[in-house]
Structure formats: C-alpha cells, structure tokens
Amino acid sequence: MAEFDLGASFIPALHKPSALLPIAKHRDSLLYLIETNPVTIVVGQTGSGKTTQIPQFLEQAGWCEDGKVLAITQPRRVAATTVAIRVAQEYGCEPGKEVGYSIRFEDVSSATTRIRFLTDGLLIREALVDPLLSRYSVIMVDEAHERSISTDILLGLLKKIMKRRPELRIVISSATLQAEEFLRFFDSHDAEGASSVEKEAKPAGAIISLEGRTYPIDVLYLDSPAEDYVEKAVETVFNIHTDEAEGDILVFLTGREEIDTAVRMISERAADLRPGGQSILALPLYAGLSTEQQMYVFEEAPENTRKIIVSTNIAEASVTIDGIVYVIDAGFVKLKAFDPTTGIESLTATPVSKAAASQRAGRAGRTKPGKCFRLYTEDDYRALPDMNVPEIQRTNLAPFILQLKALGIDNVVRFNYLTPPPAELLSKATELLFSLGALDEYAKLTKPLGMRMAELAVEPMMAKTLLTASSFGCLSEILTIAAMTSLGGSVWVQRDGEKKQLEATRRKFAAEEGDHLTLLNAYHTFVGKGKKESRFCHDNSLDFKAMTRAVSIRAQLKRYLERFGIQVDESLKLSSPATSDQIRKCLTTGYFAHAARMQPDGSFQNVAGGTTLYAHPSSLMFNRKADWVIFHEVMETGNKTYIRDITKIEKGWLLEYSAGFYHLRQ
Ligand code: CDP
Ligand code: MG
Question: Which of 84, 206, 219, 642 has the maximal Cβ count within 10 Å?
C-alpha cells in the first residue's frame, strides 16, 4: 500500500502556518475584490481557509477601524462556537475579546470584539434593533450553499440594506458551485420594484474561486443495500481498522441517537481488539454536545490510536477535522419537513444529495489520498437528487414571517427570496400567527403582542405562552418551562445500564399532568436550597450542564419580559392543583396547534390533521393513559412519528384558547 505511506510527515492543524492554506495566495486579490465590490462570492473547498482566514485578512486590512465590527454568520450554532474559538486562538486572544461569538442564549462577545461569529438567525434578530446592521463594515454569510432558511432570509435582507448602505461589504462563502445563483440574486431587480439603471450596467459583485489542493479519493459502494446502516457503519470501521493503513475515520450518520449507539458499539468491539495493536478512540460530533465535548474531536488522537469521529452532517462543510483518511457515508441526513395539512414539522432522515455525498467524500482527501465507503449501491447514488430542496420550501415559516413583519416587511409574498416559499406554507404560517394573536385580520403585526413575540428569542408558540402567562398568574412557572424546553436536548441522562435508576428518579419529580410539570418540578428541586450542584444531578439522573444552562436561559428570558415592563412574581407557590390548571391552560394558548387525542391503542391522533403520533419513550406519557394533550415538539425516528414533552389538557380549553384555529378548518 505504497500510496498510504505516512513517511511524509503530517503537520498537526494547530501548528500548520496559515500561509500553507490554499486561501493564502489569494489574499490580495480577495481583499481587492471586497474593496471594490459590494458583494464578493468566495467559492472554495472545505478546509481552504474561508471561515478562519477571511475575517483575519479583513481585520488586518483595516476593516475594523473606527470601532466597526466584522460579522461572520453560520447556519449552525456548533460551527459558530468552534470556529470562533479557533480564530481566537490564531489571533491570540481569549474568546469574547477581539474575537467572539454569539448564539441564542450564549453571548461570548464584548465591546472589544472586532470579529464576531454568530448564527444567521441571530443576525436577523439584530436587525430588529439595528435595521441597517450599522455596526458592521463587512458581513460574511458563510456556508451559504447549505441554503438554511435563515441564510436565505438574511440574504434577502442584505439585498435591501445594501441599497441604503453603499459602503457595506457582503461576502458570501460557499463550498459548492452555486456562486452564479447568488450573484444573479444580487444583480436581479427587486420583486418590490425599484431598480436603478446603473445597476444593470455594473454587476453588484464578483466571484472568486480558491482552488484547493485535494488528493485522489477512491469511492467504494456496497453490492447490495445495507439492512441497518448503523450496524454496517460499525462493521466497516473495523474492516478499515484491520485492512487499511493508518488514518482517522469519519462516519456520517443522521442524529444523536444513531451516533451514540454507533459510538457505544465501536467502543465495545474495540475492547476485543488484539492487545498490542493500534487501539481505537470513537468520538461523537453533533449539535447537542457541549462546547467542551465538541473540542475533543479536533484534538490529535493519543499515540498508536486511530480516531473515529461519528458525526452528523456538521462535519460535511461547517467544521474541518484534520487527519481524516477514510470516510464512511451512510447516505442519509436529517432534514426538516413541514406538512402543511397537519401543521407538523419534523426532522426526518432523508437521502443526501449528490452534492452532499461529494462533500462528504471530499473530507477524506485533505491530507493525503483517501477512501470513501458509501453504505449504498452505485444505483442508489445515481438516483440521488443533485441538491436538496432549500429549507425555505419545506419548513414552518411562522417564525420567519413574524420576523419579517417585525422588520416592517408587510408584504411577505413579495419579499426578495432567493427561492420563494410555496404559497401553501405562507398561508399556513399566517393562519397560525393569526390564531396566536400575533397578526390581526389584515395580517398586520399586533402591538404589543405580535411585536413582543417577534422580539422574544423563542419560537412563536412558546413566545405566546410566555406573554400570556401573567394573565394566568403562572409567569414564574412558565418561564421555567420555557427555559427547560429551550435546551435543545434532554435534561435526563441515562448512564449505561442505569435505565432503572433513571425511571426511579424521574418518578420522584413526575407530575400526573405530564412532562411540562415534571420538568418544572425537577427545576424547582434543582434550584432549591443547597441543591444547585452536580452531586444532586448525578444522583437524580439529571444533566448538570443542561440544568445550569436552563438557569441562565431563564434569567435571559426574564430580562426580555422585564424590558417589556412585565414583572415576574417569583414567590414560590408550591404547585397546587389550581396552579397546575392555570399552567396547562396557559400552555394551551400557545400550543393549541400541537394538540392530539389518545386512541384506544395508546397512540395519539393529531387534532389538526389526523396523523398518528406516538409518545416518545422519554416522555412520561409513554405507556400512560391520557385523553387530550398538547405537545412541545415532534421528532421522527425510523418510521414512527414521536412527540415529546406532552401535557394533558381539556378539550374545552382547546376551543376556548385557539382563536378560531379549529373553526377555520370546518
Ligand atoms: O472555511 P473553510 O472550510 O474554507 O476552512 P476553515 O474552516 O477556515 O479551515 C482552515 C484550516 O483550519 C483547516 O486546515 C482546518 O483543519 C483548520 N481548523 C482547525 O484545525 N480547527 C478548527 N476548529 C477550524 C479550522
Ligand atoms: Mg468554513
């Protein structure tokens, strides 16, 4: 296997001078283009240095003088944090000083911050207070090829802002060749009318391509489809480990559950490896991990150890891990899908696009020739779509319509969309916002309710719940529930082989009425006297980090409310049946669209569309009796649609608090 000779020494990323990155030799032309064009589109392979280097080039070239800031947006929170930490390291400062990041509920930036990484969603939110985003001299929209809905909306806003701020510079970076489409978008006339003659003469932007060096990659397919791709992925890891030369392995699966299973299976089987040989270290990478856990994957493996990273599509383009020689691609990705008839949004494992498959394979050839093992047949590959449908065409638009309205864009149909959303999704979102009281019958934002809902950093259904809570006398409790359900993961930890313990401890907090009140009980106990500590969490199967985050999120939400002049009465009423009723009624005012009724077989039927739903095994309502319920969210695993965070309600409340939502349908 001469081609895998590791004789040529491999330089660890942290010490690799940035002058060696493909982007280095384009520095001057890049800066010139940005200087002379309102929009610059940078196309370059993952790992060429776009995210980490461009902001530093700009800063050195003086784009941060006069207190101006550079914004670099990311579709994913994980990417915003890991990349900011990396750039801070290269820059030589603590994260939060000159280089910082801001993601929802976590702001690691300060008045000294000049290079600020943030999610594109957060930048849209910033436009509510600063409509021209005037503190930024350059806004770099990174990973634009992913076409997340926030990216699309942000590009639409920037196109508007650009006209009012000719000095603003926009950099769009993409890992794939969609550059022309972005440029056409900025060059085209507005749907809203005004276009200048001058613009026709001079294009708004330029495209620069950073050709990067890659090594050849052998792509291998399966003869016949795999029955269970997680199992097959694990098997392939061990085949590579025994048959192939040195080099780390990157495995693409779809989500946390699969990844945790695979990591566990790999670690178990690794124990049986022949002693004395190279050992194996399997690490997970997905959005729900703490920043610290994410960092492990970037560290070099200990000597004589092969590192196996099992990741979601985060590792496809957003973050770069060095030393990968083998890629195993299961061929699926979790994508949001919104069903306008049922009003249910779920994350569903979907076949990847050809573009994504080639991105994934590309991860193997960064430091030397590599191999990509696709866990599907070549025929399956040929049947894949070239690109995935942009998120804006398959997601619940309610949060975005609310934002646009709050930004003064009333005619959301004629907004500058890169790709317009289907009319059905637009009307569905408008209907929901109307029933929530955010829009009036002329589809205008209501004041103060609609405006405040847009400002609160939680999705519209929770925002409505929070803003109604004082009238039900349960604001303190709803604040806690909002924080506990905004964590993006579970607060319960099930340690290996301790399923029983989890059940037993959870029973201590369990509320007959369902998950929301159970979460409330857990939080109350956690913040109770002398209990705010990891020991308590460990003994009660709670995730200490998640609980600590809940405390911080709660405080932030409380500050929002106080800014609106809403006072929070924190005198702890021990939840009486009366408060429990108020809390459940209040939840119904926000979550009526997520209502379901239990069927004789124990499954649920969604009220709005008649879909069959199942209580997630992590819910208290799993295997319990109920009649009418509301739920926080839907998650799809395999071929069943699961609902999570479920609370019993009464049918009468649904009619009372849903402002005609269910009548509209008759
Ligand atoms: O954005 P793009 O994919 O073009 O590249 P980048 O993220 O700027 O990465 C440039 C280099 O920095 C690569 O060699 C990465 O491996 C390295 N890097 C790293 O080692 N650790 C990070 N957290 C981010 C980047
Ligand atoms: Mg990047």
Answer: 84
Secondary structure of residue 124 in the 3-state scheme:
helix
CA distances from 228 to 223, 225, 268, 351 (A): 14, 9, 18, 14
What distance in Å separates the CA atoms of residue 266 and residue 203, rounded to the nearest whole number? 53
Distances (CA, A) of 614 to 52, 348, 503, 605, 609: 43, 15, 19, 9, 15
Please report the domains of the chain, with CATH numbers, ordered by start residue: 7-210 (3.40.50.300), 217-391 (3.40.50.300), 456-657 (no CATH)
pLDDT in tens, 424-463: 999 999 999 999 999 999 999 999 999 999 999 999 999 9
Best CA proximity match to 253, nearest among 245, 264, 261, 242: 261
Residue 469 neighbours by CB under 8 Å, 6+ apart: 475, 477, 478, 479, 586
Nearest to 221 by CA among 89, 373, 81, 364: 373
* Residue bearing the CA closest to ligand 1, atom 25: 320
> Which among 304, 288, 358 is positioned nearest to 329, based on CA atoms?
358
Q: What value does the mean pLDDT take over residues 59-82?
A: 95
Q: Is residue 95 within 6 Å of ligand 1 at its C-beta?
A: no
Nearest-atom index, ligand 1, CA of 14: 20
d(CA 398, CA 454): 10
pLDDT tens digits, residue range 306-360? 999 999 988 888 777 888 999 999 999 998 888 888 888 888 889 999 999 999 9
pTM: 0.89
DSSP secondary structure string for all residues of 2-16: GGG---SPPPPGGGS
- Tell me, using a 6 A CB cutoff, whether residue 117 lines ligand 1: no
Could you tell me if the CB of 334 is within 6 A of ligand 1? Answer: no
**Is the CB of residue 492 below 6 angstroms from any atom belonging to ligand 1?**
no
**CA dihedral sign, ordered 248, 253, 254, 256:** negative
Please report, in angstroms and rounded to a whole number, the separation of the first and last CA atoms in the chain.
69
Better pLDDT: 494 or 183 = 183
Listed residue (394, 337, 345, 360) closest to 253, CA to CA: 360
Written as six digits, the tokens of 645 are 């965070």
* 266 in Cβ contact with 27 (< 8 Å): no
Q: What is the pLDDT of residue 3?
A: 38
Where residue 84 falls (left for φ over 0; alpha for ψ -120 to 50; beta otherwise) is: alpha
